[in-house]
Every structure is written in structure tokens, then in C-alpha cells.
Amino acid sequence: MSQRILVINPNSTQAVTDGIDRALDPLRLTGGPVFECVTLAEGPPGIQTQRDVDGVIAPLSKLIAARDHDCDGFVIACYSDPGLHSAREVTRKPVLGISECGVLTALTLGHRFGVIAILSGSIPRHLRYLGAMGVMDRLAAELPVGLQVTELVDAGRTRERLIATGRQLVNDHGAHVVVMGCAGMAQYRKALEDAIGVPVVEPTQAAAGMALARVRLAGV
Q1: Pairing of strands 34-39, 4-9
Q2: Distance (Å, rounded) from C-alpha 137 to C-alpha 130?
Q3: Number of domain units in the chain
Q4: Alpha helices in 91-154, H assignment, sequence order
Q5: How far apart are CA 52 and CA 145, in angstroms?
Q6: ∠139-108-25 over CA atoms, to 5°?
Q7: How far, rounded to the nearest angstrom, does the alpha carbon of residue 90 sit from its chain's CA centroid?
Q8: Are residues 15 and 69 in the same domain?
Q9: At 118, which CATH number?
Q10: What confidence tens digit (pLDDT) does each residue in 101-136 have?
Q11: Are 186 and 20 spatial neighbours (Cβ–Cβ below 8 Å)?
Q12: Beta strand residue intervals within the chain, DSSP E
């Protein structure tokens, strides 16, 4: 039986899950692990406030506990890493949050990293997390694109906003690497990187890559 990594979109927007699923194609290897992407039906359309974050912790932990028997690792595919520590209490399998993994990956690619958020209201929550991680001295800036999660499916407008914001992080704030601060941005990583000329980290790919390594190396 192939090893399996469950990638959970904690919001209820299936289009976001579909974008995450496509973004993981380069990491799908012959012989596994299998990446299975699922949508948390109990989640809000987008996780944009602290209340949204807090509200998905219980159903997310319940889902991970229910799938513990047939999964070898889990990825929480939301940039707020909702329920990360609670989830780690319901399974002994690896549980990775995309924010933590995305930032840690960025630190290996450049000295100063910038983050593109969806909304300005998300930034204080993200800054609290970066402060807890102890990496604020490496942060160039975090700037919003000003789009709701559900609006990220508008490819033309989203790509334009991402590129403009990415260029601002690089040119005005000195970012050497940019982290996409929402799983719903996954499909735009390559276009953004080509446009702004610095490495761009898509955090779900970063977390999935770390999960893949953890699962493949387990017991070796």
C-alpha cells in the first residue's frame, strides 16, 4: 500500500483545493507517497480573520484523527497554520503547516523575505506568528493584494495584483525572496517568479516537499 499524505484545505472553497492539487503535481513521484487533497466542508469560504482560524481547529483536528489510520503525514494548507499544534496532539504522524514551512524555506533562499497577503487585515495575525517564530529581523515587509480568497480565481486580476505587489516588495522593501501568503495563490507562483526576478515560495509546495521527505525517511 502506497504511503499517503493528506493535504487539507481548511476553507470550504473547492476551487482553492483544486489549485493546490495542481500545484503538487511536480512532487508526485512514481511509487508515492500519494498526495490526497481534501476540502474541509465545515470551514468558511476563506480563512481571513482570527475567528475563522479558531473556528476550524476542532473540525480540522477531528478530520486528522479520523484519517490517522490510512495517512502517513498531513499538511494544513492555510497560511495561518490553523490548528497546527492541536493537530499534532491527535496524531504521531508528521503535521506540517504551510506558513511555517514557507517561511523556513524562504530563509534558505535569501536573507530578507517578503510576504504577499490577501488582505491588510490578515497581516497583524501573520506578524504575530512570525514574531513567535523569531524571524522578524529577516522580514522585509508584508503587503496585501486586496482580494478575498474567493476572488483569487479571477486569473487576470490576481496575476496583475500579485506581480505589482511582488515588485513593490523587491524594489521598495529589499526582499530577496517572496512568500505567497495564501494557499489560493498556488497556481500563480511561476508567473510571479518570472515577473519579479527573485525566488518565489509557494508555501503548500514547501510544506508538501518537507512532508514527502519526512514520510519517505520514516523508519529508514
Answers
A1: parallel
A2: 10
A3: 2
A4: 98-107, 123-133
A5: 19
A6: 105
A7: 21
A8: yes
A9: 3.40.50.12500
A10: 999 999 999 999 999 999 999 999 999 999 999 999
A11: yes
A12: 4-9, 34-39, 73-76, 95-97, 113-117, 139-144, 177-180, 200-201
Q: Residue 20 and residue 47: Cα distance in Å, rounded?
A: 15
pTM here is 0.93
Whole-number CA gyration radius for the chain: 16
Quick one: the chain helix, strand, coil %, rounded to 5?
A: 50, 15, 30
Query: Are both 107 and 132 inside the same structural domain?
Result: yes
Nearest to 16 by CA among 39, 33, 49: 39
Do 90 and 119 have their domain in common?
Answer: no
Q: Mark whether 211 and 181 lie in a shared domain.
A: no
Q: Which domain holds residue 50?
A: 4-97+205-217
Stretch among 34-43, 166-175, 179-188 having the lowest mean pLDDT: 179-188
Residue 62 grid cell: 477531528
